[in-house]
Amino acid sequence: MKTRVTEIFGIKYPIIQGGLAYLAYAELAAAVSNAGGLGQITAATLGTPEKLREEIRKVRTLTDKPFAVNLAIARHDNGGKYQELLEVVIEEKVPAISITGANPQPVFERIKGENIRTLVLVAGARQAQKAEELGADAVMAVGQEGGGHLGRDDIGTMVLIPRVVDSVSIPVIASGGIGDGRGLLAALSLGAEGIEMGTRFIATQECIHANEKYKQAIVHAKETDTVVIKRTLGAPGRVLKNDFALNIIEREQEGATYEDLKDVISGKANLEYIYDGNEVEGFGWAGQVIGLINTIPTVQELFDEMILTAEKGQSRIDRLFGELNHR
């Protein structure tokens, strides 16, 4: 399967693993890269340059394939500054980075002349055009079905992807609501040249940092079992529906400010659930794709199933068009 995404990033399949705060570490990233995709480790929630350097080197003991580091440049959860983390990425000669969360221009200025491939997460055509102007190798466009932080305009993936594809000349990677081979084939049909998945990779065996209760919640939930928090704060994010998340929304509707909510929307509250399984005092990010997830496979098993399903889907489409042409 060859697209500009596979060629740019040196991977077999155009499948990118999401940044996944607190979950995207060496074991998962290496498994994705070994299966033929582009695995990522998350820099911001590692916190310190020393921990990031250690994790990068750990990935290299587990795979000789390309991988990326996600820089969520608006996050400083553990006191780390993204500029310090970026210096480690450069020193360690990481082949690719993804940039999320804020204006990526300072990152592009710093890595000019370095041999680092770049992905920028966007939620609309204007953001994608800006990323292209800055020199991004590709953009990842996330529809409102996605888990974690989203765009503010509630644009679904089905509309967003062709809209972004039509607005830029660089490759577009589809994200949001994708979790199997059908989603991969659909994204390619919309003009994307690859996909990014976050939620689906949480429910895999190599996502060892995710609590089993969190994984089981993803497996057993329906597509209606998510809600969007932080909408009134201008930073909407989709999470699993539980009483803790519903309470956040209720307080938002009552006019709560960021200062009022900062403890319940913090990384600490996220960790209470995803690490400790404490849904009474925490929340877990998840997209609507949970309605399509009912297993916890190895990453390799997931890739095998996805490619097989995409091939069967392509054969079905070919057959339908063949029948149409013979009428």
Strand and helix map with partners:
Blueprint: H1 4-9, E1 15-17, H2 26-34, E2 39-42, H3 49-62, E3 67-72, H4 82-91, E4 96-100, H5 105-111, E5 117-122, H6 125-134, E6 138-142, E7 148-149, H7 157-167, E8 172-175, H8 181-189, E9 194-197, H9 199-202, H10 212-220, E10 226-229, E11 237-240, H11 243-253, H12 258-261, H13 267-274, H14 299-325
Parallel strand pairs: 1-9, 2-3, 3-4, 4-5, 5-6, 6-8, 8-9
Antiparallel strand pairs: 7-11, 10-11
Separation of the first and last Cα atoms: 31 Å
Oligomer: single chain
Our Rg estimate from Cα atoms comes to 19 Å
> Count of DSSP E strands?
11
Tally of separate domains: 2
What level of helicity do the residues show?
Answer: 40-55%
Order of helices and strands: HEHEHEHEHEHEEHEHEHHEEHHHH
Mean pLDDT level: 95
Low-confidence stretches: 76-80
What best-fitting shape do the alpha-carbon axes yield?
globular
The H-level CATH homologous superfamily of the largest domain, spelled out, is Aldolase class I
Largest sheet: 8 strands, parallel
CATH class of the largest domain: Alpha Beta
Q: Largest beta sheet: what is the strand line-up?
A: 1-9-8-6-5-4-3-2
For the record, the CATH architecture of the largest domain stands as Alpha-Beta Barrel
CATH topology title of the largest domain: TIM Barrel
Strand percentage, roughly? 5-15%
